[in-house]
Fold:
Amino acid sequence: MNRSLSGIGLIGAAVTTLTGIAVEAFVKPASTISDQQWSYPWSAGALVPVSVAYAVLHLLVFLGMVALFRALTSRGGRIGAAIAGAGTLVLLIAELLSMPIADRRLTDTGPKVVGALFGAGVALTAIGLLVAGVVVLRSWTGWQRYAAIVAGGWAVVMIGLSTTSALPLGVAIYGVALCVLFAAVRTHDSRPATEPRIRTRVES
Structure:
């Protein structure tokens, strides 16, 4: 079950990476929309299906966070994973709330509120991944032990990038970090944890 959840999260993270690259490389250069409009670089009409698609990606990533939660056994680690999952759900809600304000200017009340919601979602995700990351760093071995704290560190960087034109590129890098995180969860869960104990008993 957990391998399936981490696999779903991995798919969501991979598509998030591709989406960020596509927006940075193709959508932004071709956009004629003012960067003071909430929907930028998309038109107001295009933002509706785009927001739905982004919400689906957040849902897939959330399922990956559930896999991280299930892979951890300590209270602190699970609290961190739960906070990160909650932050991802806040991002999902913010995507849906973006649709009715697509044609508004950034200085309007609606965009300010939804923008703050996005900021809260990213901050919660960053805090949660850092808390879980400290636990993973101490309890896991191999390259997997660094995945959560690196993803959390980049989520902190995302807080600063959220109001800049570099956001799509930041999202792409965040997607890569999540890919590594969910791959770490997937490979960590596949380890035969009982094998060393069996060998010890046989040798004794």
The two ends are 34 Å apart (CA to CA). Confidence is low (pLDDT under 50) at residues 193-204. The chain has seven helices and no strands.
